[in-house]
Design brief:
Blueprint: E1 6-10, E2 16-17, E3 33-37, H1 73-79, E4 88-93, H2 99-112, E5 117-121, H3 126-136, E6 143-147, H4 151-161, E7 165-169, H5 186-203, E8 206-211, H6 224-228, E9 231-236, E10 244-251, E11 259-265, E12 268-271, H7 275-279, E13 290-297, E14 300-312, E15 320-323, H8 327-341, E16 348-354, H9 366-378, E17 386-388, E18 391-392, E19 398-399, H10 404-414, E20 418-422, H11 423-432, E21 441-445
Parallel strand pairs: 4-8, 4-9, 5-6, 5-7, 7-8, 13-17, 15-16, 17-20, 20-21
Antiparallel strand pairs: 1-2, 1-3, 9-10, 10-11, 11-12, 13-14, 14-16, 18-19
Helix pairs in contact: 8-9
Length: about 450
Amino acid sequence: MAKGKTLFYCKECGYEVTKWQGQCPGCHEWNTLTEAPSAKGGKVSRTISSAGRPSRVNEIETQEESRKTTGIQELDRVLGGGIVPGSLILVGGDPGIGKSTLLLQMCRTLSQQKMKVLYVSGEESARQIKMRAERIGEFTDDLYLFSETCMGTVLQAVEEVLPEVVIVDSIQTMLEETVDAAPGSVSQVREITATLLHLAKSRNITIFIVGHVTKEGNVAGPRMLEHMVDTVLYFEGDKTAMYRMLRGVKNRFGSTNEVGVFEMRNQGLVEVANPSEYLMQGRLENEAGSVVVCTMEGSRPFLIEVQALVCHTSFPMPRRTAVGTDYNRVNLLMAVLEKRLGLHLGDCDAYVNVAGGMRVSEPALDLALVAALLSSHYGRSLDSKTVLFGEVGLVGEVRAVSQAERRVAEAIKTGYTTVVLPESNRQSIIKAANLDIGNVKLVGVKHIRELEI
């Protein structure tokens, strides 16, 4: 009998080679190649569709997918309105960020809707999950807990319980006995995902998979994992910060432009319905170097405080620090201020901070950064009811940004009276006349020289 061919897979990117190497040719990481022999028993791949022949596109009957709400509005927002039966959803995030807590809270709300839910954990015992569940609230008898790592046993449990929703926590701890590899390896993750995909499509069961992430922030295992599932959600945020953000990076049944915001408390994750008001808590008014900017996370506007501190230094090399935004972008804007406004900042330290632990990289932050730097340099404060946004170019021009009408609407809803924005955006808003600005003053600027600080 011919000997089975042995392949080596990269744990980081899934690159395949026939001979072990110290460095992966695909991602150039060291010591990431692991041996993954072919599956035992000549296992054939599963098929999802039962169609016997190809069909013309006009012959296929379609119907609108009926979604089921999870009972958590922020989660429903990211999913596109709720969970779609028969979908496979991957949830990734750093350890301790709250993935298991969020899914356990979702299980509680689904079970209260008389939906059978099976929670499979390969990391915790049923008693440990029960202890964590007691902190969240009361559960109904429609939630089933199962501590198991063998995939065959899990499939038997699904046949017995017949749930509508299954949670697998986590994919890296599950073991397919027909694959001669360790749990969490590329071949194990790929085979188990294929099994769960077939289960979801054939039984019309919604399956949530929890995935561990690498130090780079990507889901551990082959990149193919994200291609196989229907939806990929990432739970982001610093464990020491006051908020968590749920972001969809792939969604076959909805938009990927939505973001859900949660706050971690003793009783679990709490939804943040108005993130702008929440992030602005504790802001001091009429302080030099403090500016409010309206940024966008997908299609959702956020009001965030941008702080800057500019002070003279006695050292020959001034220090520059940026927290929450791109360090190189701050240096670029300071160079624009020196060249276009004649400011001498070569002997000044500059510290920039986006309050609340937010990470903002969009160009609309430029105008607020410039205003904060000028405000701190001159020691003059801006009106506390003023919001700024706009992109700044190398010659000092203020360029238009996307979704300006939504940004202005968010400022009006939060109670701000003045919005400083690119002149082209101001003209577009006035010409469209779709927004009732009331007594709010729209100030359009074409160049940073027009900023009155």
